[in-house]
């Protein structure tokens, strides 16, 4: 079977996550954190790199699957000649160690089930020593230890470095399997009741989803997007990873394969806006607090991304033993882009903290000092060329969006002082900066002949990030330059009605071979830009098409190939779901998110 990215569903415990395929196989799981080494890495290789499948004997893809309404609990069902069966997958929220729970339930007839477990620590490289202890299986290799048990007990046996099981279930019968990780040097962890964990997980997720304030069209997928954002949150710190995966390709067979298991500052304003609009103030506050901790220090050292606890060093290296998804090599861990200069992040952080203040999140005394320090650095640094919002690995340029966000930084600081003079600062200095940036962008970043802003000064290339110009307030939506930019981006970066980030092939902008798909969040930005410029019907039609790209359980990856009709890039992608939520509020919520 040729796997597709959209064939997977997500389960998680707000500290890590697993991807479950339509065939009942868990093909990706990093333990104990999102950024830990995977013990199931078949997603980026084959079954020998680690997976855990439970399915009817001889069965292939499932007959149907779905999340239980408003939860992250996944039901996968097969109809066979013997009868019907359901496998329910979840990861209960934990106190200390992670558990993966799989409950098999007979729905009709008498179905023979088979289980096959290949544990391969360190991204599929290390085969653990498996032994039986008190009727359970325990696998150990170096720092990692995993226990496997079942209720009621099911016979398991080892063969060819795999753990096998076979059992039958009749209608109404249930068999639960629990996989528990813990550090190998520590005593065996306490046991979780899998059936109680299932009940509590369903109740907790549904109670959380019920708090959502959105009641417009497509509420189900808006709630699903918010649940996905919640699942991508590292609960101990409040950080939100861009995706739970690494190296899912932006082009099948290509080299644009990156590790997204970290927290990007560029997501901050849009994330806060989506959470606040939907009524999730606790999560918004936790993200704001993570942001404040992560950026603390010398403003010159501000990074574009951090680890889930705020780690700064994210060295990039390759895993040569993994062939990659659909032969897309190399597989990378870490992200070298952490060293890049992306000046837009200063604007996004200042904008985020201003939004947090104006939205009524609890005040932090040092928050304004952080904003003022960042802006003082930016007051001279904004003139530098940088790598831009898309982390291009080509030469630095004067990217227009970076300059626009420098304007945003000064604008938000001036507005904050106008509203709260007691904060302290010199608004005249920041007004002068704001005016200077605005004038330069309009003179050097605008192509009057084509009536469009360009990707960088002096370039003829376009960039989808420029769709955010009216959203951030740099120019009003009815300005002819805004309308011209939107139309030019639709014409030159559009593909089958969707939008690419920029022209990747043949321009030398990003220093990489090959191309990529249309970028989903950019298409959501286009829908919102159309709405802001009075073309609401077109915006809603585009939104309908974008929502239709979600897979059968409502998940979106980073990109989409409209020719092949396939999702591309890391999955599920927080930025895509943030875009969906924000655009839904803009189009149907009576107010813009953020």
How would you characterize this protein structure?
With 594 residues, the chain is of the alpha+beta class. It contains 14 helices and 28 strands. The chain has a 15-stranded antiparallel sheet that branches. The longest helix is centred in the last third of the chain and has 20 residues. The chain is elongated, with a radius of gyration of 25 Å. It starts with 8 loop residues before the first strand and ends in a 6-residue tail after the last helix.
Largest sheet: 15 strands, antiparallel
Percent helix, as a range, is 25-40%
Principal-axis shape equals elongated
Unreliable stretches? none
Strand content: 15-25%
Distance between the termini: 42 Å
Structural Rg = 25 Å
Give the rounded overall mean pLDDT.
94
- Total E-strand runs: 28
Computed structural class = alpha+beta
Query: How many DSSP H or I helices?
Result: 14
Question: Quick summary of this structure?
Answer:
The chain has 594 residues and is of the alpha+beta class. The chain has 14 helices and 28 strands. The mean pLDDT is 94.
Keywords:
594 residues; 31% helix; 14 helices; single chain; 28 strands; three-stranded antiparallel sheet; alpha+beta
């Amino acid at each position: 079977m040729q796997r597709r990215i959209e064939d997977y569903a997500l389960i998680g415990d707000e500290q890590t996550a697993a991807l479950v395929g339509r065939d009942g196989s868990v093909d990706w799981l990093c333990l104990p954190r999102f950024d830990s080494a995977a013990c199931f890495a078949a997603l980026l290789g084959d079954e020998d790199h680690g997976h855990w499948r439970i399915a009817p004997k001889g069965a292939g893809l499932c007959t149907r699957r779905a999340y239980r309404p408003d939860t992250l609990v996944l039901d996968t069902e097969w109809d066979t000649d013997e009868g019907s069966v359901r496998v329910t997958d979840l990861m209960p929220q934990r106190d200390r160690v992670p558990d993966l729970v799989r409950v098999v339930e007979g729905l009709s007839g008498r179905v023979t089930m088979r289980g096959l477990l290949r544990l391969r620590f360190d991204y599929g490289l290390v085969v653990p020593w498996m032994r039986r202890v008190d009727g359970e299986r325990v696998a150990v290799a170096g720092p990692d230890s995993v226990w496997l048990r079942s209720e009621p007990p099911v016979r398991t046996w080892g063969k060819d470095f795999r753990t096998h099981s076979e059992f039958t279930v009749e209608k109404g019968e249930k068999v639960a399997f629990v996989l528990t990780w813990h550090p190998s040097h520590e005593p065996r962890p306490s046991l979780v009741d899998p059936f109680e964990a299932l009940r509590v997980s369903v109740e907790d997720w549904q109670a959380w989803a019920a708090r959502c304030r959105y009641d417009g069209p497509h509420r189900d997928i808006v709630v699903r997007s918010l649940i996905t954002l919640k699942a991508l949150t590292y609960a101990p710190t409040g950080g939100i990873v861009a995706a739970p995966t690494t190296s899912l390709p932006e082009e099948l067979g290509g080299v644009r394969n990156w590790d997204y298991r970290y927290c990007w500052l560029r997501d901050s304003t849009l994330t806060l806006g989506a959470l606040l609009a939907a009524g999730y103030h606790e999560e918004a506050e936790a993200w704001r607090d993570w942001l404040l901790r992560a950026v603390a220090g010398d403003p010159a050292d501000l990074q574009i991304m951090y680890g889930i606890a705020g780690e700064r060093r994210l060295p990039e290296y390759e895993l040569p033993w993994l062939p990659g998804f659909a032969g897309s090599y190399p597989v990378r861990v870490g992200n070298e882009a952490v060293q890049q200069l992306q000046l837009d992040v200063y604007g996004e952080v200042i904008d985020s903290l201003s939004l947090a203040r104006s939205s009524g999140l609890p005040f932090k005394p040092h928050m304004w000092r952080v904003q003022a320090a960042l802006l003082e650095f930016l007051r001279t640094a904004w003139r530098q060329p940088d790598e831009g919002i898309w982390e291009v690995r080509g030469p630095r340029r004067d990217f227009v969006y970076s300059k626009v966000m420098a304007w945003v930084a000064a604008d938000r600081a001036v507005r904050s002082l106008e509203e709260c003079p007691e904060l302290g600062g010199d608004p005249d200095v920041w007004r002068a900066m704001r005016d200077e940036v605005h004038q330069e962008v309009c003179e050097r970043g605008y192509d009057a002949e084509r009536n469009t802003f360009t990707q960088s000064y002096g370039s003829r290339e376009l960039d989808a990030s420029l769709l955010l110009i009216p959203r951030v307030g740099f120019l009003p939506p009815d300005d002819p330059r805004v309308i011209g930019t939107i139309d030019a981006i639709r014409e030159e970066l559009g593909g089958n009605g969707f939008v690419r980030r920029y022209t990747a092939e043949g321009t030398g902008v990003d220093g990489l071979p090959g191309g990529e798909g249309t970028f989903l969040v950019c298409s959501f930005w286009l829908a919102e830009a159309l709405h802001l410029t009075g073309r609401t019907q077109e915006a809603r039609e585009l939104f309908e098409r974008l929502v239709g790209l979600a897979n059968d359980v409502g998940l979106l990856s980073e990109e989409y190939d409209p020719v092949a009709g396939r999702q591309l890039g890391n999955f599920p992608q927080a930025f895509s779901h943030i875009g969906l939520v924000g655009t839904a509020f803009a189009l149907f919520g009576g107010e813009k998110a953020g």
